[in-house]
Structures are given as C-alpha cells and as structure tokens.
Amino acid sequence: MEHTYFPMFVDISDRKILVVGGGAIAARRVRTLLLFAAEITVAAPDICPVMQQLLQERRVSWIRGTYEKSMLAEKDFVLAATDNHEVNRQVVADCRCAQQKENRRILVNSADDKTLCDFYFPSVVQTGDVVIGINSSGRNPESVRKTRKKIETLFEKKSQYGEE
C-alpha cells in the first residue's frame, strides 16, 4: 500500500546537506534548497554550468570525486541525484547503515527511486513570506508541475525553482 506523505515545513537553515551528483537534476534541487539552507556540499566528479556558477558565488562547496561513504560524516540530509542507479542505491544504503551503526538519522532522497526515499522533494513556490510546497507522494509529477504553474499564475510571480 502506498502512503500519502504529510506536508511538513522544517527549519533546515543550520542543517548540513550533501547532494551526490552534479548534473541538472542535482542543480535544480540545490537551487531550491538554497532558499532555505546555507550549508550544502555537492559531491561529483564533474558539475554542470549551473552548479559551477553556484560554486563561484560560494553558495555551495564541492567535493570533486566519486561518492564515498565518508562523505556522509556529520550530514543531516542527503540527496542521491546521480545518473547512476547503483550509486544512488549505495548512497541510500550507506545512510541506512549509519542510522543502525552510529545511531543517527540521515534523511535521504533518491532522485531515481521513490521507494527508497525518506522524504519527497517538493515543488516550491515562494512569494514574499509565503512558501507553498506541492507534492504528489511521487505518484504524479506532471500534475504537480501543472498545479505549480496555476499557483504561480495566481500570485503573478514565477517561483525561482520548481521540483518534485
């Protein structure tokens, strides 16, 4: 039975976030996270132009190289967003292992397999002091995109970054 996820707004301003992957999906998620968090580390052998710009602006830090379990040290949230399913699965497995062995919870999201996620990455619309998160529990990303566009039209302001 598939579950519907509870929408919860959490202060992540002081959380340490690791994004494994340096491509377009990772960049979209990082840009959204930057609206709410300050300490984001990207781990990837290469990074896309958007990520390079964020690095130049000193908005993210970059570990240049392939994923290693040691990168999880002191991280609170991890996003596995590579184009390699096996690497993403390993990231999730290592987060779960840290939970068991180190008695600490690392919330993890895998961009390519919703069944492995502790949380789903929402589509975000922000206008002024209002933040709206939209999610379909991973079932219908197209519906989320359409809903986001309707909300943006309602507020007559485009969100900076949309996801699910």
Kindly describe this structure.
With about 160 residues, this protein is of the alpha/beta class. The protein has two domains: about 15-115, NAD(P)-binding Rossmann-like Domain (Rossmann fold), CATH 3.40.50.720; about 125-155. Helices cover about 30% and strands about 20% of the residues. The protein contains four helices and seven strands, in the order βαβαββαβββα. The strands form two sheets. It has a five-stranded parallel β-sheet with strand order 3-2-1-4-5, sandwiched between helices. A two-stranded antiparallel sheet has the order 6-7. The model has no long low-confidence stretch (mean pLDDT about 90).
What topology does this entry show?
Elements: E1 16-20, H1 24-33, E2 39-44, H2 49-56, E3 61-64, E4 77-80, H3 85-102, E5 107-110, E6 123-127, E7 130-134, H4 141-155
- pLDDT below 50 for ≥5 consecutive residues: which ranges? none
- Tell me the number of strands: 7
Give the DSSP E fraction (strand runs of 2 or more residues): 15-25%
Report the CATH architecture of the largest domain.
3-Layer(aba) Sandwich
Order of helices and strands: EHEHEEHEEEH
Biggest beta sheet attributes:
5 strands, parallel
CATH fold annotation of the largest domain: Rossmann fold
Report the radius of gyration as a whole number of Å: 16 Å
Structural class: alpha/beta
Number of DSSP helices?
4
**Largest beta sheet: what is the strand line-up?**
3-2-1-4-5
Q: What is the helix content?
A: 25-40%
- How would you describe the shape? globular
Tally of discrete structural domains: 2
At the first level of CATH, the class of the largest domain is Alpha Beta
Fourth-level CATH superfamily of the largest domain: NAD(P)-binding Rossmann-like Domain
